[in-house]
């Protein structure tokens, strides 16, 4: 799987977030597999997080990469000529959550994450006109029965 993707030339997608080292698209020709060191562009694409109230860049409390503010998102979108940054990596209550005047969206698909959260999950659907819609996966506390693969009456 790639570290990131540019959908329709307008939506920049990654697992984590932005990097202060990302200055142009040519930097994203990343050969795989790679074991990125702690402080590099690859690590930021995997683990950086947006943070309300932060101006610029700050250390991430996760102990890896950075957190970044709304101004970073606006600057990045203008400099790289994209409309939206789509990312995962953080539990959000409704399955998706906007940041920086809807220039960044966090999409988290695992509802009831680890059985510890009461969050919904979501999937972003992008049509040919690059219009985005969200399918929300409602949280459920129902127990799921996992079958062994044998049907009733079947012999081993």
From TrEMBL:
Keywords: Hydrolase, Manganese, Metal-binding, Protein phosphatase. InterPro entries: Calcineurin-like_PHP (IPR004843), Metallo-depent_PP-like (IPR029052), PP1_catalytic_subunit (IPR050341), Ser/Thr-sp_prot-phosphatase (IPR006186). One of its GO terms (molecular function) is metal ion binding. The keyword Nucleotide-binding does not apply. GO terms for cellular component: cytoplasm; nucleus. The keyword Ribonucleoprotein does not apply. Pfam families: Metallophos. Its EC number is 3.1.3.16. SMART domains: PP2Ac. Gene3D superfamilies: 3.60.21.10. Residues 1-141 form the Serine/threonine specific protein phosphatases domain. Its cofactor is Mn(2+). It catalyses: O-phospho-L-seryl-[protein] + H2O = L-seryl-[protein] + phosphate; O-phospho-L-threonyl-[protein] + H2O = L-threonyl-[protein] + phosphate. This is protein-serine/threonine phosphatase.
